[in-house]
Amino acid sequence: MTGRDGKFYSSKDVCENLQISKSTLFKWEREGLITKVRRDWRGWRLYDERNLEEIRQNIEKQKAAETKPRSSYVLVVDDDTMILQVMSDLLQAAGYDVLTASNGDEAVALHLEKQPALTFLDVKLRGKSGIDVFREIKAIDPGATIVILTGYPKIEDTVQVIKEGAYNYLTKPIKSEELLEMVAEVIGP
Asked: Which domain holds residue 122?
């Protein structure tokens, strides 16, 4: 499929026409929010009408996320019911409204419905991995503030999710002071 004028669009053309930066464009491509683009003989990216429509939709989602007020909820996502209970009790005792999810699909649905102010997301979930759930949430809610929970921190994975927009990470066992400090930092005391 070619552009309106019978040609493909370069990344420079796309950025100028749609008023986005190249880093945003390439980030959306890496995150799978734009269908795989074509490349010319030099290896440069070329975009078509379908890509432009996907980019326009992402711009609209981002605008909607920026204008929609966030709720005051803290979402905790973990498949270990003991951890869910302990974190929920601790946060409620500190005066926060808490939502819990034990799997990725539930977490994504709660994110769509409630738009929590902060999400604690375990990396190791049954079914979908926490990293996949993180990417799904960021795709539907680019303004989401997500803290990754991990029992086995791999520096590469941690660096990758931070690059992709995670707010921070906490290692298990989670210290209550660290948890409450992070919530206060994002939501307030």
From this structure: 73-186
Q: Is residue 177 pLDDT above 90, yes or no?
A: no
* Residue 67 confidence (pLDDT): 55
Q: Is residue 4 part of a domain?
A: no
**The pair of three-digit structure tokens given for residue 105, joined into one six-digit string:** 């699909």
Q: What six digits make up the tokens of 159?
A: 């660096």
Query: Using CB atoms within 10 A of its CB, is residue 26 exposed (0-12), middle (13-18) or buried (19+)?
Result: middle
The values of phi and psi at residue 144, to 5°, are -65, 140
Residue 51, token pair as written in the block = 């890509």
Instruction: Write down the number of H helices and E strands in the chain.
Output: 8, 8
Of all residues in the chain, what percent are helix, strand and coil, respectively (each to 5)? 50, 15, 35
Contact 148, 161 (CB under 8 A): yes
> Cβ of 114: how many Cβ atoms within 10 Å?
15
What percent of the chain has a predicted confidence (pLDDT) above 70?
88
Mean pLDDT value across residues 20-44: 81
119 in the same domain as 163: yes
Same domain for 173 and 104: yes
